[in-house]
Amino acid sequence: MVESVVFLGVLFLIAIIMLPLLFLRGFIICQMWGWFITPYFVGAPDLTMSMALGLSCFISLFTMNSTGSKADMVADAELDMAKKFQVGFGPIVATLILWGMAAIIKGYLPAATVIEAM
Q1: Of 1, 39, 58, 100, which is least surrounded by CB within 10 A?
Q2: CB of 46 within 8 A of CB of 38?
Q3: Rounded distance, CA 64 to CA 35, Å?
Q4: Strands, DSSP E only, in the chain?
């Protein structure tokens, strides 16, 4: 009984942490689509938040690491706090760095020269 309550508590905490991160990733994809795709390709639709969330899930299907699970890495008692931090927050930091780099690149792009869609 106690194990099931602990398991449900862990699932609840994961949901509380992962849902905002999912929406952050969707927001970043939506914003980068508006910066790099819509102005330069005629006929490219604006990306809504729900479309960006779906695209994020679709992309993650092809970019998952299949060599080992993060839960196994975190559960290993020999890992120090730096490794646990890297496993837990590495993807978040990488996404935010990518967003910042995209904002810098957007600043250097010329005004929208339209490319005809095929």
Answers
A1: 1
A2: yes
A3: 26
A4: none
> Directed axis angle between helix 81-108 and helix 2-36, to 10°?
20
| CA 26 – CA 49 distance, rounded (Å) | 6
Compute the distance between CA of residue 17 and CA of residue 57 in angstroms, rounded to an integer.
16
Q: Is 115 helix (H, G, I), strand (E, B) or coil?
A: strand
Q: CA–CA separation, 18 vs 85, rounded Å?
A: 15
Predicted pLDDT of residue 27: 92
Domain boundaries, the chain: 21-108
CA 94 to chain centre: 9
Residue 4 CA to chain centroid, in angstroms? 30
How many CB atoms are closer than 10 A to CB 84? 15
Please tell me the pTM assigned to this model. 0.66
pLDDT tens-digit series, residues 5-49 = 788 887 887 788 888 888 888 999 999 999 889 888 888 889 999
45 and 30 in contact (C-beta within 8 Å)? no
Greatest C-alpha distance within the chain = 63
